[in-house]
């Protein structure tokens, strides 16, 4: 769990090195729990932390350049718009960027 | 008292008993048979045929006062087609003439297996040297209110349908009453219904299953049978139960589960049979569903045997006469010494009968069980005809013929003797000489359910094809057909091909090892080796289109690379599934389950104490013994995992991985009276050698010390069975999961070392050749046992040394992941909670 601060550009949830390349980690932004991912190419993505299907921990999922796969039942969601590849409810995606080594999520 | 069927004119049977007792110098062994039904009497006949009258003084106890009669013919007696005298098989005189003492009308209560004495309900006893239990089965009476009077007798007007006395009572009732309800739409119930209808009664059948004769027929066959039965004027109520009998003085009607009431003055209960096992239970013999017997039909007491419907052999109960005849022959061979090595190995069951005026023949299975099974169906509901065959590896393994049994003779031959099958499978079901007609899936009704797991109809599959799904895979993804147990995949494929009318596209990814890389497994392995690709990201960069990573391919590639490279594999945490990242099994609430290694299921008080302490310290909500003989700590928080491992001080049991997991064992020769080999030690040795080995799917093994199979070795990926004389049987490809499959005997070897070597060789062959997530129970039939035997036992491809070496490389690379990552996390935040805000849903504590 991390202490967050709100800036003009969004919520600072942690430092970039908190999220190893290729993996995801969960944070709290304001009172919202978000999962932040850093892909191998360095790009950052953020989604709601719980899978809309059965509440699975999305930060524990597997990723590639297009999708995030929930570890519980392997439902996949597109980074692009959070839509599901199998017609389920979409996940909420949030803009996320780096500022001075910090992760900033916009809710 | 009604007449004794097959009785002596003077009606005396105990006289013979007295004469036998008076003969004080009889040196023959005493053979006692409990049960005078078709099985018990047949054993006596077979024993006598082998000269057993010289060896044995034979006593038969029969609960009914009658001689031996043909129970199968009772429905004919009820229908008035046969006179009851015509169904007598052995009269009282027959027993007397053959020197057999028949104690008819005397029930046996229990057996003192230590003193070897049978205790009968009339207070008498009979000593024995060899005892045969042939207690048969009785009608199953489902619970319903108002069925019994206060004195526990059935309400007047309620009948079972199992004995000649039942039949006589039913005949008497049929003459006086007008409306009957039959509970049970199986064979017996339908026969009873038809017979009662023949006596002029209005008959309704209430059946709990969703289709008639669900033991023998598939739903489509059952639906067609229903049409035929209803066309006779018999009303059928499906998928409902009788919950209450309306009385109170005698039957006036019944109430169904859905609240409807049916008038009835005769109620026949034919809802199935249950083995009669009370005597065996009272005598301390092993009883599961039936009295458990081995291949020599012995119970767990070496001088007590069981045959017929009361006996459970290799997990099977038989309710047909042919298996009973086979059992009786084997038992007579053994008892008389005519063939001391005789064994019964189970029966292939086939029946041919007329149900409510409809011809029915069934044999073997009634639907495909594997992807590779061929399944041919001809369904003509209007004509009341439904025909199907199941073919596996060019052998007929099942057939159902309803309404048209002209091909039954040929099919029976093919089923029993493995006669060669015509290339044009359609010829199995119809003669094409009068003009070929294209039939098959085209004839399946549109609303027939193809995928039973996900409830997908033929129509839904056709709609998906019409909607643009051009491959079998796309149809399966869209409809979820074939995504359950998978047994319908073959039929789905046929329907897709039929619906697409030749326009079906071969699924391009079907032959690929992973969806993200367009290569089959052998080519992928070669490329990885030749290009020295040591990590998953290197594989994607070199072999994936555009170097694109694919999330759903990562876990399979991690497994493959670890298998190929052993210790040289370069790990990437993001390429692992969460279970492999934190070495525990993720649960539905985001917590994890932790299973420490417990080799061969053996533990110590110290380990148990430690596990208990850890469970208390971390407030583990559930501690559970697993099916693989280990202890599961469920509901561990992710952040607690390293501390839990450290406190346990035991290695990981790999309960989370697509990997070798555990070896289940029995106590073998350590403590068991019957153990033929040290299964516990061999299980520990196997688990020690193969701990942590990655594989395409989980692998569960078992070793048992005798063919009683207490640790279920016949249904494991690799199962080892001690068969005496230091020999061990090695079975492969068994399963008791979504599908149940007995493993195939790969070889019988003569030392534990040979078991370990062969197990490793098989596991490596499977690792190198199986598709991702393909269990051995699919792999072995796909590759073929004959091929596997040639490769592994005869080294037909010259690869055995490579297989052994490949396995050894993986074994050498083993490290306990709990020890590794527990000390230093592989990546920052490896054990950080993934859902920090919300309190975790509580798992119920029991």
Automatic annotation (TrEMBL), chain A:
Query: What keywords sit in the KW lines?
Result: 2Fe-2S, Iron, Iron-sulfur, Metal-binding, Oxidoreductase
Q: Where is the Rieske domain?
A: 11-105
Classification via SUPFAM superfamilies? ISP domain (SSF50022)
Quote any Pfam family the record assigns.
Rieske
What EC number(s) does its UniProt record assign?
Answer: 1.7.1.15
Question: What's the protein name?
Answer: Nitrite reductase (NADH) small subunit
Which taxonomic lineage is given here? Bacteria, Bacillati, Actinomycetota, Actinomycetes, Geodermatophilales
MF term (GO), any: nitrite reductase (NADH) activity
Q: State the CDD domains in the record.
A: Rieske
From TrEMBL, chain B:
Q: What is its EC number?
A: 1.8.7.1
Reactions catalysed: hydrogen sulfide + 6 oxidized [2Fe-2S]-[ferredoxin] + 3 H2O = sulfite + 6 reduced [2Fe-2S]-[ferredoxin] + 7 H(+)
This chain's protein is named assimilatory sulfite reductase (ferredoxin)
Cofactor binding note = Binds 1 [4Fe-4S] cluster per subunit. Binds 1 siroheme per subunit.
Tell me the PROSITE patterns matching this sequence: NIR_SIR
Statement: the UniProt record of this protein carries the keyword Iron-sulfur: yes
Q: Name the positions where [4Fe-4S] cluster binds.
A: 666, 672, 706, 710
Lineage, please? Answer: Bacteria, Bacillati, Actinomycetota, Actinomycetes, Geodermatophilales
Pathway where this protein functions: Nitrogen metabolism; nitrate reduction (assimilation)
Q: What class of enzyme is it?
A: oxidoreductase
Occurrences of domain FAD/NAD(P)-binding (ranges): 30-317
Q: Does this entry carry the keyword Nucleotide-binding? A: no
